[in-house]
Fold these 2 entries.
Entry 1:
Amino acid sequence: MSITDDITDSGFFGTEGGDGAEALDPAVIELVDELLAQAPGGREGLIRVLLGLQQVFDRVSWRVQELVADRFGLSPAQVAGVVSYYPQLSSERRGRLIVDVCTGPGCFLCGGEGVLRRINRAVAERPPIAGEPTLAVRQERCLAVCGLAPVIRIEDRVRGVETEAAAGDLVTELLGPDRRPEDRR
């Protein structure tokens, strides 16, 4: 059994309930210390520890960022700056598939904001089903392919989306048909 089995990071600052004063799971602290022991010193070690935590928890919560900051002798703001700078890191759970929607000037003028709203709505209308892929939607300022506007990026593939309806269909394409049991009242 690995140390990452059966441990969770519940977050803090009240984002997942509570007042943020509750203690971290001791297994999370042990995992941070284990990753720290394996990492080189300095900034490179910090990034390796954060990437390891991102891989285990699908995010690096604020609470864990504070712990990492303490272990590295940094301020929480310095660690938060690293987490917010690198796209591989996130303080929020991201989902297994990541869709970036461009809302830069070119895409905005061609309907990018409507595409973003439609994708978010389609995702919200599909509550997650255990074992099925999840989708995280992020807004990007510019994806630098204005000729295809409005543009989305799925993982590392960029594609244009002609209509809001096509954006909604994209969710079905990525996640498959909605297979929730029908309401039989």
Entry 2:
Amino acid sequence: MELEEACRALGLVLSDRQRAQLLGYRDLLARWNVRVDLVAPASVEEILRAHVLDSLLLLVMVRPPQGGSVADVGSGAGLPGLVWAVARPDLQVVLLEPRKKRAAFAERAAVQLQIPNVQVEALRAEEACTRPQYQAKFDVVVARAVAAPAVVLRMARRLLRGGGRLAVPVGPGAAVSPPFHEVACRVPWDPQRTRRVAVFLA
């Protein structure tokens, strides 16, 4: 499924510029991935589907509030936070990625693709929690492919403001138990598959 078709299936309306930014990000990720370990080795088409489209699906599932703030914990190459920032320019997104090479890539991508609502911090979530400017600041904290929901909650809970949401995607066999509840959605480009997210409300 191509980007434009996927956006229609998800109910997302993106401008030509936004679509160009997302495809530019896909191409940058594919190019850098050859020499820096950003994501698992994959073709350009696989990177689009497994990372860019998956991040858009998570955006639709989590639904950050209009004008909200987002912390992407263990963001890696900027997933899903950088994709969210492109699709939702109203959001203020902080990418927390302690691995220097990955943080450097995300910063370069944000500059090169002119994504002004992204800030990259080469920090672990636990470190960010000790900084006054990040404590109880975020409407949404998301952690894609980082750790189990309970572990992420321990790491990042202090980043959430009252009424905020922590969203942790989980695999098909993972149990979701309180204080989390499950949000599930059929994947439009892979109808046999269901994407699941564990959500904690602060």
